[in-house]
Amino acid sequence: MSRQAPAAAVEREHHAYGPDPSQYAELYLPRPRTRRTAVVIIHGGYWRAAYGAELGEPLAWDLAARGWLCWNLEYRRAGNGGGWPQTFEDVAAGIDALAAAVAGRGLALDRVAALGHSAGGQLAVWAAGRHRLPPGTPGSAPRLRLDAVLSQSGVLDLRRARELGLSDGAVDNFLGAAPEPHRLADPLSHVPLDVPVYAFHGTGDDTVPVELAESYVAADRAAGGRAELILVPGDHYTLIDPCSAAMAAVRHVLAGLD
């Protein structure tokens, strides 16, 4: 996978939002900032601790070099203190922490989009609807709301992913066997969202089946939402290669949000 070297016009800052080593995000600040939309990057890895925020770094450097302010978010995963509800508490707190980080630099947040790959796509779509969660539910009452979600081969149908046993039972490994976490975490349980969801999926993806994106988009649109399925060339990882045609399609949609 290609990686773009750090751009001289980009400043990177580390921000902790909690005491755990995985509770942090990195702010990528372009000089100059030419895009109104800030991008929260949420990495994948089937929610497992073996995969971290380094997966989002190439996209953060690339987008920041093109004028987008980026927030590459880390969180606790299964195997290092994550799961239900910790991962969801972290993603919520990490997104909310962006507001304080930019305020400290005297910057405004006109629009905020979440860009989530694989398991990060599930977390991004969940985060976009958390203002509608019941009071007291992990992640409810957001201080910062998302304006759009761009899912990159996202795990957007947890029930079907569980039935398929994807990645050696990753859904149960992450959420356990109790039904309530599965319901609250599943993007399909919260359609329609009141923000657009762009579900990008590689035509050669054999890691996350495209049917998970298809079922989510169909359900969201049937309920009156604005989800859109966008098929792009490549496999599961092409979408996080800044040099790919698939990522060029993601940038095109991002640019349209401005």
Automatic annotation (TrEMBL):
Pfam families assigned: BD-FAE
Source species, domain of life: Bacteria
GO molecular function, one term: hydrolase activity
All copies of domain BD-FAE-like, residue ranges: 27-214
Keyword Hydrolase: yes
Coiled-coil parts of chain: none
InterPro entries: AB_hydrolase_fold, BD-FAE-like_dom, GDXG_lipolytic_enzyme
Provenance organism: Arthrobacter hankyongi
Record keywords, A-Z: Hydrolase
Name used for this protein in its record: Alpha/beta hydrolase
